[in-house]
Amino acid sequence: xTASGNMAADNLRRxxxxxxxDMLRDALRAAARVDAAGDFFTxxxxxxxxxxxxxxxxxDLMPYPxxxxxxxxxxxxxxxxxxxWLEATRAADSxxxxxxxxxxxxxxLYAAVPALVEIxxxxxxxxxxxxxxxxxxxxxxxxxxxxxxxPAFAVADPPPHLADVSALQFRTRxxxxxxxxxxxxxxxxxxxxxxxxxx
Length: 199
Prior knowledge:
Layout: H1 3-9, E1 12-14, H2 20-30, H3 34-43, H4 45-58, H5 74-92, H6 98-111, E2 119-123, E3 126-128, H7 136-140, E4 148-149, E5 152-155, H8 160-163, H9 167-178, H10 181-186, H11 192-195
Antiparallel strand pairs: 1-4, 2-3, 2-5
């Protein structure tokens, strides 16, 4: 089969590779949170950086397993939850510290991430493992300027290696892929306040 035939078989989706910034921007628009994000991300740069990493990790295509159709995108659900949790935390304590605001935002941002175990994602015939540490954005990319591959999504039972992973363990593992030294410092080293929040 020719190279063009291979690309057709792999279902080339976009000629221009979307960036993590594009994906986050589009999700903020879909969640009607552009204005709120502008102010919050100016105050907390770590929130923007981690949000962009999550956007690239799950992409703007991953559906959220829902009982209604059309299913929302998981990234949009994550953004909606992030700002809902931030607003609820602010309403409960008007004198909260910056660290508490960042914790609340990130707890909401990662609250829906365990839904990934309910979706089987394949790219070019290979199943994407959300706990392997490789971003779905990287798995889809054909390289700079060469477009991206269309992933396929299906609601499925979790594979054996994910079936016994708790929501807390799942959130903690995914968050660990996205948080580096400076962000841990911004969180004052305490990731438990982020990952132990209830959905």
